[in-house]
Design a protein that fits this description.
Blueprint (H helix, E strand, L loop, with lengths): L31 E6 L7 H16 L2 E5 L3 H6 L2 E4 L26 E5 L2 E5 L2 H10 L4 E6 L1 H12 L4 E5 L15 H22 L2 E6 L6 H9 L4 E3 L7 H13 L5 E6 L11 E3 L9 E2 L2 H13 L3 E5 L11 H19 L5 E6 L2 E6 H4 L11 H8 L9
Parallel strand pairs: 1-2, 1-6, 6-7, 7-14, 8-10, 8-13, 9-10
Antiparallel strand pairs: 2-3, 4-5, 11-12, 14-15
Bound molecules: 6-O-phosphono-beta-D-fructofuranose (F6P).
Length: 391
């Protein structure tokens, strides 16, 4: 097939160099690509689906198959066709029309055998279904976990392309993941609202936000929303320092304080708090409770009435911001262009102002954590915000 769309539009002609490590599949023979969304949902997933479908159809004339519920859909063969009409207007809609799952890892999939649940590698089922469904290339949209599975499939010979998303913004190879900007805007808006009620009632208000391993949402929303205390997983905190800071504010006439705490933050010498501990099933466990624990201790130590709000899944829902719509759309279009150039086992990334393509294996090697001594933390501290560091 010539790189010319069914719609008659001329294909974008790019002459990028073949990337190191790329496994070649003759792009001229591609007829159908598939897309799945894996891991926790986030704003911008539908925008990326729309961009992939439009670029695949308009630029290259490919068919697009949507895989339902992440890798589960590939294991069970649950799919739907995606046409340009199916994705009309999707850029504004939160969630994912394909469904997602952050539970079914095909490399360690729970199956029932003799009445017991055991964990098996079911990637062979995926390879069979990919053949049956005549999928030439698979696009996996997701975070760390989804990318690692995509890379394992690539190692087994599946031509894959990754697109990074997560509200946590913790993927090393890309400056930003889409979903993050929307989540951090939601958290900032919540802080703005908590501010007025905290001030009126002379209370301390603690906002617990998401962030298992990294504190990007807490730190940036805290700076934007005028927090007094920001607690992140990268800097184990000292509760005495937090209480000292809040009491000092009171002494100098500020009778209220705002605290933002990432769900994965923990005190020095202590551990993360779980609502549901990680189990033997290999699932990561459900973090939660640090906001309430911090509020209890602050209230007792300072004598100021202290309340907690847990933002939870509000951060993952709703309409994507303009920034996330644009980033998701650029990722989608460039992922399709890279496929047309025969680049597989790669993930699109934002580096500076450009969308580039990097090997998935390299891209997921290291989580992008907040640097405890970096510029952003120093910016917060310059404003008088404490991160609860022990002196
Ligand atoms: O990885 C994204 C994320 O939102 C984390 O910040 C959070 O800990 C997790 O997902 C929550 O997942 P679930 O909705 O499955 O509890």
């Amino acid at each position: 097939m010539t790189p010319k769309g069914k719609s008659g539009m001329k294909a974008k002609k790019t002459a990028k160099k073949n990337l190191p490590g790329a496994r070649m599949v003759d792009p001229k023979k591609i007829e159908r690509i598939a897309i799945l969304t894996g891991g926790g949902d986030c704003p911008g997933l539908n925008a990326v689906i729309r961009a992939v479908v439009r670029a695949a159809v308009n630029l290259y004339g490919w068919d697009v198959t949507g895989i339902l519920d992440g890798y589960d859909g590939l294991i069970g063969g649950h799919v739907r066709k995606l046409t340009s009409k199916d994705v009309r207007g999707l850029q504004v809609r939160g969630g994912t029309i394909l469904g997602t799952s952050n539970r079914g890892n095909p490399l360690r999939y729970p199956v029932e055998e003799n009445g017991c649940i055991v964990f098996r590698d079911v990637t062979d089922k995926i390879l069979t279904n990919i053949r049956k469904l005549k999928i030439d290339v698979l696009i996996a949209v997701g975070g760390d976990g989804t990318m690692k599975i995509a890379d394992a499939l690539f190692e087994k010979g599946v031509p894959v392309m990754g697109i990074p998303k997560t509200i946590d913004n913790d993927l090393g190879a890309t400056d930003v993941t889409f979903g993050y900007n929307s989540a951090v805007s939601t958290a900032t808006e919540a802080l703005d609202k908590l501010h007025t009620t905290a001030e009126s009632h002379h209370r301390v208000l603690v906002l617990e936000v998401m962030g298992r391993e990294c504190g990007w949402i807490a730190l940036e929303s805290g700076i934007a929303g005028g927090a007094d205390v920001i607690l992140i997983p990268e800097i184990p905190f000292d509760m005495n320092e937090v209480c000292r800071h809040i009491s000092q504010r009171k002494k100098t006439g500020s009778r209220f304080s705002i605290v933002v705490v990432a769900e994965g933050a923990f005190p020095g010498g202590g551990r993360k708090m779980y609502e549901k501990e990680p189990g033997p099933d290999g699932l990561p466990g459900r973090l939660g409770g640090i906001g309430h624990r911090a509020a209890e201790q602050i209230g007792m130590c300072t004598g100021i009435e202290t309340r907690t709000a847990v933002l939870g899944h509000l951060q993952r829902g709703g309409t994507p911001t303009t920034y996330d719509r644009i980033l998701a759309t650029r990722f989608g279009v460039e992922a399709v262009n890279h496929i047309a150039e025969g680049h597989f086992g790669h993930m699109v990334c934002l580096q500076g102002r450009s969308i580039v393509c990097r090997r998935i294996k390299q891209a997921v090697k290291k989580l992008k954590l907040v640097d405890p001594d970096g510029q952003l933390v120093r910016t917060a501290e310059a404003l008088g915000i404490t991160l609860g560091r022990r002196d």
